[in-house]
Amino acid sequence: MRLGALRHRDFRLFWIGQLISQVGTWMQSVAQAWLVLELTHSPLQLGIVSALQFTPILLLSPVGGALSDRFAKRRVLLVSQTVMQLQALVLAALVWSGYIRYWHVAVMAVIYGLGRALDIPTRQAYITDLVGRSDLPNAVALNSVIMNGARIVGPAVAGLLIAAFGVALAFFLNGVSFVAVLVALLAIRTDGQPDPAGRLGIREGVLDAVAYAAKTPPVAFTLGLMVVVSLLVLNFNVVVPLVARNVLNQDAHGFGLLMSALGAGAVAGGFSVALFRTGQPPLSFLVGSAATLCAGLVALALVDRFAVAFAVLALLGCAQILFTTGCNTTLQLAAPNNLRGRVMGLYTVTFAGMTPFGSLVVGMVAEHQGVRAACAAGGVIGLLGVALLVAIAHRAGIVWRPARAA
Length: 406
Fold this sequence. Notes:
The structure is a single chain. By secondary structure, the protein is mainly alpha-helical. The chain has a single domain (4-194, 204-395), classed as MFS general substrate transporter like domains (Growth Hormone, Chain: A), CATH 1.20.1250. 81% of the residues lie in helices and 0% in strands. Helix 5 runs antiparallel to helix 10. It is globular, with a radius of gyration of 20 Å. It starts with 8 loop residues before the first helix and ends in an 11-residue tail after the last helix. The model has no long low-confidence stretch (mean pLDDT 85).
């Protein structure tokens, strides 16, 4: 069945709640970036805020994954979603009060990162509990469709709201949007109870997951690809506002539309995966989509017209979703049940946790050499990194076709 994951009642509830909440999340992403630029006019300080937001994900996602292997995932998600809701409402209150300062945004970014470090690995591992392994590829693709569909709607709406009313309303609406996912979680019957074999101490659990990844070549190769791409390419939260403002001379509305282009491409990619992919993708597919992302970032360095930038970002969004859903599915199907939460913690580290370093590098290069140089350097070095990983994998005799699920 092409959309087999939607047969599951609890997944449908989770999917709908996430759709509404993710629209608010992308509204806040645009509002936060624009607020930092209004307060500081500095690409570097924008990069610092992004780094602060993602540093907890880098440091604590393995802990979040270990917690999801020890406690019921639904309860962990209720905690993480509540933390992120409060963060959004505090930001709205600070902006409306007129007391907002750069350091306020920085502190709130760290708090948001703490919530995400707990939320991402738990949410990814929870999907298998909701649909089972047979419908997992379809569920991962559908989950990506709603997240990136929200990337179309959220930034476009945020751009209009910011232009008309300022950033506070975007933060407030994001806080309200969390109500949908919290209600859905309360209505879901599947608790996501952990496998008894996964009830280890936090330190022991994290080390066990790292050892498993190191001795499993397809898992190690997939995580390596994610490190390269996430570090050097997936820094759109810094790159796109700088391209919009400094290269194309766009206002907040134009910035929102460019972010929506990423989402449009991602939705197209997500639907193609949901409708046509079954099972685990070959590792060669991951390599091809990673290389496309790197080449697309080089192309973005060359654009000087809004329409061309929109098209390039749509292509990047499509390639990103093909790459990340492929990596997600590969890791979840490869991991045994008692390790799934912790392996998704490693996925979160390599996917979102590399962003602090990438954001800082992009911010520093853009500050001194311009955003075009930052994009070109990231894309070219990324291509070299992908090529190096492929060469190492060939030497190690890695199997390029999917292994059977564990």
